[in-house]
Amino acid sequence: MTHLRRIGDLLERAGIGLAGTLLAVALGSISAQIFFRYVLGNSLSFAEELARYALIWSAMVGGAVAYRQGAHVAMTMAVERFPGPIALIVGKAVHLFVAAFAGLLAYQGWAIAMRNFARQQLSPALQIEIGWIYLAIPVGGALLLLAAIEALFVSRTGEQVSAL
Amino acid sequence: MTLLGSLFFGLLVFGVPVAFVLGGAATLYIVLVGGVPLSTVPQRIFAGLDQFVLMSIPFFILAGFLMNEAQLTGRLVQFANYMVGRWRAGLAQVNVVTSLFFGGITGAATADVAAIGPIMIPAMVKQGYSRENATAVTVASSIVGPLLPPSIPMLVYGISSGASIGSLFLAGVTPGLVAGFAMLALNRYLFRHMAPTAVPLEGAGSSMARITGFFASLRIALVALAMPLIIVGGVVGGVFTPTESSVAAVLYAGIVGLAMRTMGLRVVARMIGLTAILSATIMLIVAGANLLGWVLAFERVPQAIAEMFLSLTDNRWVFLLMVMAILLVVGLFLETSGAIIILTPVLLPSALAYGFDPIHFGVVIVFGLVIGLITPPVGLCLFVGCSVGGVQLHRLARAVTPYMVLLIVVYAFFAFVPQASTWLPSLLNPIG
Amino acid sequence: FAQSLTLRFAMITAETFPYMDGANRFKELVEERSGGEIEVLLYPGAQLGNEREINEAILEGSVQIGIGAGAMANLAPIYNIVQVPFLIRGQTHMEAIALGEIGEELARRIEEQAGFRTLAWFSTGDSPIETVDVPVSTPADLQGLRIRVIESPVLLDAMRALGANPTPTAYTEVYTGLQQGVIEGAHLDVLSVDTLNIGEVINYMTDWEQMTFVSEPRPVIMSAEFFDGLDEETQTIISEAMIEAAAYEREVVAGRMSEIRDKLVAQGITITDVDADAFIELVKPVWYSYAEQIGATDLLEQIIAATP
Ligand code: NA
Ligand code: NA
Questions:
Q1: Which of B100, B259, C191, C225 lies 20 to 30 A from A18 at CA?
Q2: Range with the poorest average pLDDT among B21-30, B216-225, B421-430, C27-36
Q3: So where does this one cross the membrane (chain A) (predicted)?
Q4: Which ligand is nearest to the CA of B142?
Q5: Nearest-CA neighbor of B109 among B157, B43, B153?
Q6: Could you give the angle at the alpha carbon of B251 between the alpha carbons of B249 and B254, nearest 5°?
Q7: Are B279 and A59 in contact (CB under 8 A)?
Q8: Domains in chain B: boundaries
């Protein structure tokens, strides 16, 4: 179990780094767009698209990290009123449900990414394969699956992660 | 419809995170009912994330964080203290007024919560407001944005209905302002017991020291106040789009903080990481909502609800009440623009047949749907508020209820008195 | 008799756009001729997603019918040949291409590249150049103007060739972009000018009867695999109904464009005369370089030869 947690810690740190870097890429891209339009008088055609795609990846990776940190918004009012053992079971059931959803995202996301590679669908501005962007879904789904499995086996009681 | 509803509330009550309630209920529905390939799930999650209007959310959050770290927020609060601190509910009022300015510009309620929340909520908490109240004010006041021009929902309604967009923008002005002022009055009442100034003013002793203190705080506050000016001025002056203005806000807060040496590059990097995770939770909710909205549209649920309601009456005013009820219900589940696109063709022909003005009807549709953004248990702005305010959903739901009731009253007024919103467009834009 | 079937027809355009007139006609014809066995459900206004998403949904199987446009060219690059600016001179030229051998060949290559069967060709009308402050008659008038384009390399290159500063802008931001000055002009088709109420924020438009930026034939598409899996009678009902519906749609477009012309003039918009040849000469090199890039030089020459 400690292995599971150590892998989780490592992935979490890498995930924050990756999601943050991608956000910075989006930021730089839109900044460049403004700069090119006014200072150089020539618009960048791909800036908005690059920013959008970077944020798709950032959100999928960041979403899995957020699950590990317990940062997703949930309605916990009812569950908090359940007696201890039942609350624990319900908590595990939630992780199981998320794991199933994540597994489906990973599997179906991988399949549709591969089909898009096969179709050679290009993005309008960057003219790169859309499949590369679609891969964010299975990668994020797999990371989410890992986080949910870890939460199923490793108890994280008494932990409250505030968003701010 | 019943199946989808039960799945949804079942998952929500058992504490499944909202993003996975939205996406999960839709996925279970697809699995149980069939007829749609499962690849629709990743496809719609992708589509939900791949949206132009979403981009400003992480940037506004980051700008707020950087302003905090650069200690600009504290200065802004201090200045606000001098300005309105002696009034009751001063900072709560600042929050609403900021939304009137700011939300008016971006035209997107979620962006308003994301932009103002990280600045105003910590500031209000510092002054002694509870976290949920501070978040509730932020969330409730965010919905004036889509009413004031420019407004994305009004634009979408204009496209769906063929009504003049210029007139629609003007028609939203009065309801937006009245809603804003109503909230100012409510704050005044709700926070009447708040000590006027919880944070002591420097040099509060003599009036001379007070004046000196005011100018000292004004000087530094100007640096902080320049940010909204850049956003407002930049967008109004046509220098950049609302989305680009969010990036300008980040650059400004970052450069000021680094130049004044109130924060270092390491802090900036940490804030970017924090923002990425926080905005991911919001973006996944939007993505989940996109999947659920797609399933609802595919199954023609909104049309079915509308037809069911409309078959119940042939009275003009009962019809209007029904429409309001439909909008409040649909606004809970569907993202605003999507709901407008689906409902306008269903509702508008009947509305015209009953003799309602298409511009007035646009106000009815947009206002009704944006109230759905803050209505518990499901509301996109509510969820964004939970994330940026660090508040639990049910606590925020309770705190936001008085505002919601007030807004519904204001809404009813503008629904039943068409002239209250249409006087401005007919005065300034007689052709439309 | 026809097999029992539900066809979902998705469009990104608003319910008021002529596509919907064509789609409604198709629905009537198919439901009547199949004795109600085939049900057609219409989803206008991008309810089921934007164009790229609808194209994918057709290939994945959740949507059956859509209308190919710019995003389809990312799956079927050959389609770019009818999207190069100023090549197709208007509705007569467009119909000559769509209904003749060029259209057949284009449809064949679209299917080869993307797996879509083209049932018929809709029209989206002609597109003038709309500007806020500068009346446009010659390419010199466009120098340095920020003109909205969609993110398509060929449109960007063409705009640059004309000397403008092409500025990619989302469809829903065109109105506010023009109003606030982020963009100074656009090349929306006449029907979108009307749908988006662009007349409220511009003052000038070029005369689209003298020169149209693009006038593409728009293929009404199904998945070829899905279509071939249907029984023959069903196929015939669908194909014939769509061909009739498309003819009706093109008629509606032509009628609507002349109505809109009167409306815009009444609104106080100045429609300017243009030196069309000057624009065409500047963009011609872009035609040839793109045609070569996508292997469509033969089609390009046939399209030029079909100029009325
Ligand atoms: Na607004
Ligand atoms: Na606010």
A1: B259
A2: B216-225
A3: 16-38, 50-67, 88-110, 130-154
A4: 2
A5: B153
A6: 105
A7: yes
A8: 39-428
What are the pLDDT tens digits along chain A (164 aa)? Answer: 678 888 889 999 999 999 999 999 999 999 998 888 777 777 777 888 999 999 999 999 999 999 999 888 787 777 878 888 888 889 999 999 999 999 999 999 999 999 999 999 888 888 899 999 999 999 999 999 999 999 998 765 434 333 32
**Smallest CA–CA separation between A3 and chain B, in Å?**
24
Which pLDDT tens digit goes with each residue over B317-368? 898 998 998 888 777 767 777 788 778 877 887 888 788 899 999 999 999 9
Report ipTM (2 d.p.). 0.90
User: Where does residue B126 rank: exposed (0-12), middle (13-18), buried (19+ CB within 10 A)?
Assistant: middle
User: Could you tell me which chains touch chain B, where touching means 3 or more CB pairs under 8 A?
Assistant: A, C
Return the H-helix or E-strand segment holding C221.
strand C217-223
Nearest residue to B39 via CA among A107, A150, C300: A107
- Alpha carbon distances (Å) from B149 to B111, B114, B173, B177: 15, 19, 7, 11
Around Cβ A110, how many Cβ atoms within 10 Å? 18
- CA-based nearest residue to C228, from C218, C216, C238: C238
Q: Is C129 helix (H, G, I), strand (E, B) or coil?
A: coil
Q: Is C4 on the interface with B (CB under 8 A)?
A: no
Q: Are strands C116-123 and C130-131 parallel, antiparallel or unpaired?
A: unpaired
Cβ A125–C153 below 8 Å, yes or no?
yes
Considering the entire predicted model, what is its pTM? 0.85
User: What is the tens place of the pLDDT at every residue in C116-136?
Assistant: 999 999 999 999 999 999 999
Q: Do B13 and A67 touch (CB under 8 A)?
A: no
Asked if the Cβ–Cβ distance from B166 to C46 is below 8 Å, we say: no
DSSP element (H, E) containing C122: strand C116-123
| Residue written as token pair 């960041």 | A62
Residue C37, both tokens: 């066995």
Q: Return the bridge partners of B98, or none.
A: none
d(CA C34, CA C38): 6
How far is the centre of ligand 2, averaged over its atoms, from the C-alpha of B92 (Å)? 8
- CB C122 within 8 Å of CB C220: yes
> How many whole angstroms from A53 Cα to the centroid of ligand 2?
30
Could you tell me whether strands C146-149 and C185-186 are parallel, antiparallel, or unpaired per DSSP bridges?
A: parallel
Task: Let me know: does C96 contact C306? Beta carbons within 8 Å.
Answer: yes
Nearest by CB: A37 against C52, C60, C167: C167
Burial group, residue A17, by CB count within 10 angstroms (0-12, 13-18, 19+): middle
Give me the residue spans of the domains in chain A: 2-160
Continuous segment of H or E residues that includes residue C149: strand C146-149
